[in-house]
Design a protein that fits this description.
Length: 755
């Protein structure tokens, strides 16, 4: 008999490559790339092939759990669990207001669809504050993008003549479709160039034409010097700047004062190398740039986000092939970044709220206080903040101080162990799901993947949980939904009319739209796709905003059909993803915020920071902590903590601490030795790997290690170091509050020495 292959997507990074899975019983016997997938076209890296370790992990939860007095958990039935979650949340809301309930997470790398139902529940409860892992990475970047372009932008490396990566190693962290193929294509093309700024000689850096192996944490100095050289030596596209940049005069004046030689010395790069980069940009037809955690979790991160974008802006690589562009969105937000949220600062510490998110490092201090506005309850979904946020001990303490908490996850994670109630979710291959990381231009695509196996008995898909909790809370009167159900049975056109009338009559239901669509439109959708109901509303938003681009993508409505329904049907029907918008390059301007086709570089806050950069330290090490630790490096077999089974790693099973040959020789260390690493936040024992890719003084631990997982005897074991046992809450960007996980001062001690 021919083996059965089922289509889905990899969930281990934001690329969400299309895959085919050969399912035998409940086992994923083999996995291969899906050549028909609209974006990835058959591409995968090695990680996708090991997804059976996620799907059939021994750590899967199969029952809701309730915390006992002694801190352990006991299984309870679903009706009890839903009732107790509703009662716990209602108690906090009624006594202290919805703002006392804090929402964290809502989706991992590939399960964003069901987070929309969780957000609707939170909105119905009056929750005002939320956060997720983006607030420890990309909120500074989001603020910069909003101020410069009014929208999120993405590079088009397929087309770029010069590709620049700043604190980014796409070979391991990907971040754009078929990353390795693209890197190799650039490396093999003598007409194109790759520039990498990274203190480590990563695989991407090895492929680069120019690798600036700078001192850790000095990217701002390096970029400022390159920009100053571009201005000094005439490598700026003066015509583009004149036509399309809003008041660059202050920027140019600040850049003219940059002490290039001094900054080159600070970042330990020869001025001639910086001049080579500036000159290569100046000669290029197109330039695309990309940043990642290497700089987003390091000193001057928001300033670096601003400076690296100036490279392509001053080059004029916007709204043309091979540049950086804004894009459409398949989401409730429409086509641009959300307007400034009502809540600009967190209620206790006054931390700046960016992109609607409270900085992750501030969360424990919003709880561990007697402030009347402190958070007293948490809803945590598909996230493991006790493991993934700075200072795990502090986050554990904060969760213990809450009046109530509910965690939704597939496994008994480090965070679930602190929760009042744990709700076991069906895995990402047991329900329909999707990623909203659809960030592409000129073609943008969306992929709704379907269940590959039945839900593990005892688990539930998140939309059903959220709807049941909302109904237990009485957030809406089910009887009021009957006309919508009747209309949905009659057909989509009737439903569209009834839905518009319902929302006009019940504006209080607007925040609950996902839940209402699930209960009314959902039952009329094909088997297993009830959870896709919220996409109907999003499809209509796309149709309203981009009708021409939808038609250009090949989606047209039949007679009597609305365009939004045509998009929705295309998404439901496809097993390989759908291109939902196709823009012309010049239309990038329509996706940016400015109506006058001008990009904004005159950012007072960033220009002040650039002016004062010379006063900032070059190094943050000391005699006590002489090393810079990158706490949480992405490697071949790390993927946050989505896969908890340590046996999934084919290489680097212990998650070794990488150290340079020079530093190892000085300390008498060889491969496989064990040392204690000590930081201001804690200490841990680790195995050592001596490498020739690190700078002296720079050491690195991988991400995703140090999680509990049962072995074949049911005994829990922990492999490797959990990086956030070593980090602290106060080590962060002074503007965005993003942590400096990639720049933690540290020392090494022989095993046995006092910590
Ligand atoms: S880890 Fe990322 S690049 Fe690798 S297969 Fe999965 S989605 Fe694709």
């Amino acid at each position: 008999m021919e083996p059965v292959w089922k289509k889905s997507a990899c969930i281990l990074c934001e690329s969400n490559c299309g895959i085919e899975i050969r399912v035998e019983g409940r086992e994923f016997a083999r996995i291969r790339g899906n050549k028909a997938h609209v974006e990835s076209k058959g591409y995968t890296c090695e990680k996708a092939l090991r997804l059976n370790h996620y799907q059939n992990s021994r750590g899967r939860l199969t029952s809701p759990m309730r915390r006992r007095e002694d801190g352990t958990h006991e299984p309870i039935d679903w009706d009890t669990a839903i009732a107790e979650v509703a009662a716990g949340l209602a108690r906090v809301r009624d006594e202290h207001g919805g703002a006392a309930i804090f929402r964290y997470g809502g989706g991992g790398q590939g399960n964003h669809l069901h987070g929309t139902y969780g957000q609707a529940l939170a909105d119905g409860l009056g929750v005002r504050y939320r956060s997720n892992a983006i607030a420890q990475e990309k909120t500074g970047e989001a603020w910069v993008e909003g101020s410069m372009f009014g929208n999120h932008t993405r590079p088009e490396f397929d087309q770029a003549e010069v590709a620049i990566f700043v604190g980014k190693n796409p070979w391991q962290s990907h971040g754009f479709p078929h990353a390795r193929t693209t890197l190799k294509a650039i490396a093999n093309d003598p007409e194109r160039s790759m520039v990498v700024l990274d203190p480590k000689r990563t695989k991407s850096a090895e492929l680069a034409d120019i690798h600036l192996q700078l001192r850790p944490g000095t990217d701002a100095f390096c970029l400022a010097a390159i920009l100053a050289i571009m201005v000094r030596d005439g490598h700026v596209n003066a015509e583009f700047v004149d036509r399309h940049v809003d008041d660059a005069s202050t920027l140019f004046a600040v850049l003219a004062d940059i002490p290039i030689d001094d900054y080159a010395e600070r970042c330990d790069i020869a001025v001639t190398d910086l001049e080579a980069v500036a000159s290569r940009i100046g000669r290029a037809e197109s330039v695309a740039t990309f940043e990642d955690l290497g700089i987003e979790q390091a000193p001057n991160s928001t300033l670096v986000s601003y400076l690296q974008r100036l490279l392509f802006v001053l080059h004029g690589s916007f709204a043309k092939p091979g540049g950086n562009h804004p894009h459409s969105w398949f989401s409730r937000r429409g086509s641009r970044l959300r307007p400034t949220p009502e809540q600009k600062y967190s209620p206790v510490t006054g931390a700046r709220v960016l992109a609607g998110l409270i900085p992750c490092n501030s969360i424990p201090d919003e709880i561990l206080t007697d402030h009347p506005d402190r958070f007293r309850a948490m809803i945590i979904e598909s996230s493991n903040p006790v493991h993934s946020l700075a200072s795990a001990p502090k986050f554990r303490e904060a969760m213990q101080a809450l009046d109530f908490s509910v965690v939704i996850d597939v496994a008994m994670t480090e965070t679930a162990r602190q929760a009042t109630i744990v709700l076991p979710a069906s895995s990402q291959y047991e329900k329909c799901e999707a990623s909203f990381f659809n960030f592409h231009f000129p073609d943008n695509a969306f992929y709704l993947r379907k269940a590959v196996v039945d839900p593990l008995p005892g688990t539930m898909a998140e939309p059903e949980m959220h709807v049941r909790i909302a109904e237990a809370l009485g957030l809406y009167d089910d009887g009021e939904l009957q006309p919508l159900r009747d209309a949905a049975e009659a057909g989509r056109a009737d439903f569209a009319e009834a839905y518009a009338a319902h929302m006009a009559a019940h504006p209080e239901h607007e925040p609950l739209a996902a839940l209402i669509l699930y209960r009314t439109l959902g039952p009329t959708l094909p088997e297993g796709l009830q959870g896709a109901a919220i996409l109907w509303e999003m499809a209509h938003k796309i149709a309203d905003l981009h009708p021409e681009q939808v038609a250009r993508a090949g989606i047209t409505a039949n007679e009597g059909q609305l365009l939004g329904d045509a998009i929705f049907d295309a998404v439901l029907d496809s097993d390989d993803g759908v291109i939902f918008t196709r823009h012309e390059y010049d239309e990038a301007w329509d996706l940016a915020v400015t109506q006058d086709r001008r990009l904004r570089v005159n950012n007072t806050r960033m220009l002040d920071k650039l002016r004062d950069l010379g006063d900032q330290p070059t190094t943050y090490t000391s005699d006590e902590f002489p090393y810079v630790l990158a706490a949480g490096e992405r490697r071949s077999f790390t993927a946050n903590v989505i896969i908890r089974d340590p046996d999934w790693r084919k290489t680097d099973p212990q998650g070794a601490l990488e150290i340079s040959e020079a530093d190892a020789a000085e300390r008498g260390l060889v491969d496989g030795d064990r040392v204690r690493i000590v930081t201001p936040g804690g200490s841990a024992e680790t195995v050592v790997a001596v490498v020739d890719t690190m700078r002296s003084g720079h050491i690195a631990l991988p991400n995703g290690m140090g999680v509990e997982h049962p072995d074949e005897h049911g005994e829990h074991r922990i492999v490797g170091v959990s990086p956030n046992e070593l980090t602290t809450l106060d080590w962060k960007d002074d503007f965005a509050g993003t942590p400096w996980h990639k720049h933690v001062p540290a020392r090494l001690e022989p095993i046995g020495a006092d910590a």
